[in-house]
Write a structure and sequence with these properties.
The chain is an alpha/beta fold. It folds into 2 domains: 3-133, HprK N-terminal domain-like (Udp-n-acetylmuramoylalanyl-d-glutamate--2,6- Diaminopimelate Ligase, Chain: A, domain 1, 3-Layer(aba) Sandwich); 136-294, Rossmann fold, CATH 3.40.50. The protein is 33% helix and 29% strand. The protein contains 10 helices and 16 strands. The longest helix is centred in the middle third of the chain and has 16 residues, at 119-134.
């Protein structure tokens, strides 16, 4: 992942209210980490442990400390800081930059920026954006639909009817996130987000009809930009040799980017309304997330009935 300071300014400069205080030199510096750093100890002279390869956030505390120093000592501390290859320095809360910081940053081609946002608010916004930019991603084939508020990834072989099933779900009031190719992004340790790979996510390819515009046909409420993946439904052609889980006692999982996702495997044959089955699978998932497994509850009641209410401990 290559993210330059110039790209950050171009994409989020207006949103983050960023102003460039130095020249354009150094804007090609690469941001390589999503973590941020406040260089308070470095400005105080402790440079033995200094994570200089992160964006440096200079807030009220750092500015007041620098302003408390004599001019010569302030320049020495800033000069020592700028000896490192820092991606960029951002001054928050509309603080006025000391002239020495502007001069040293420009001399070492370190982009110096400022924002009117308070430090805590700005670091939260920037960290969230950087985490998404540096998050591991993978593309998978399928149809991603928001069903009853849950992100359902429909997978299966070519021609199995994924798009037709997704189209029926949309017609039943659910929302399309992406068709054909779904971009999966892992945030944190176990949050898997799904979305389109382009801005044309509201289009679907339906065999026999060609390309249709879901937003144009069903309205803007029928599409959404992104959704967390809750479960996946894998469609398979029904054959005489197909092995089907008839009870649901043992949950199955698929793995994307090392994130386990609850999986239901549904055999497809003529006459089966797959859209309704996916709706029921979604409701079943929500019940199981509450710690209730209908199959286990039924099994427990049957055992109690057969043993006269005595269950072996």
């Amino acid at each position: 992942m290559k993210l330059s300071v110039q790209k950050m300014l171009k994409e989020k400069g207006e949103t983050f209210e960023l102003t460039l205080l130095t020249g354009s030199e150094g804007l090609d510096m690469l941001i390589t980490q999503s973590e941020l750093h406040r260089p308070g100890l470095a400005l105080a002279g402790f440079l033995e442990i200094f994570t200089y390869d992160r964006i440096q956030i200079v807030g009220n505390t750092e500015i007041r400390y620098l302003n408390s120093l004599p001019s010569m000592e302030r320049r020495e501390r800033i000069e020592a800081l700028c000896q490192f290859r820092i991606p960029c320095i951002i001054i928050t809360a509309s603080n006025e930059s000391p002239p020495e910081l502007v001069d040293c940053a420009a001399a070492h081609k370190i982009p110096l920026l400022s924002t009117s946002y308070e430090t805590s608010r700005f670091t939260a916004m920037l960290s969230f954006w950087l985490e998404r930019e540096f998050a591991p991603t993978v593309c998978t084939h399928g149809v991603f639909v928001d069903v009853f508020g849950e992100g359902v990834l429909i997978t299966g072989g070519s021609g199995i009817g994924k798009s037709e099933c997704g189209l029926e779900l949309i017609e039943r009031g659910h929302r399309l996130v992406s068709d054909d190719v779904v971009l999966l992004r892992r945030l944190g340790r176990n949050i898997l987000m799904g979305g389109p790979i382009s801005n044309d996510h509201h289009h679907m390819e339906v065999r026999g009809l060609g390309i249709i515009d879901v937003e144009l046909l069903f309205g803007i409420g029928a599409v959404r930009e992104e959704k967390r993946v809750s479960l996946t439904v894998d469609l398979n052609r029904w054959t005489d040799d197909t092995v089907v889980d008839r009870l649901g006692m043992d949950p199955q999982y698929a793995s994307f980017l090392d994130v386990p996702i609850r999986q239901f495997k549904i055999p497809v044959e003529s006459g089966r309304n797959v859209a309704i089955l996916i709706e029921v699978a979604t409701l079943q998932y929500r019940i199981m997330e509450r710690g209730i497994n209908p199959a286990e509850e039924l099994n427990k009641r049957l055992i109690e009935k057969m043993t006269g209410g005595k269950v072996a401990g």
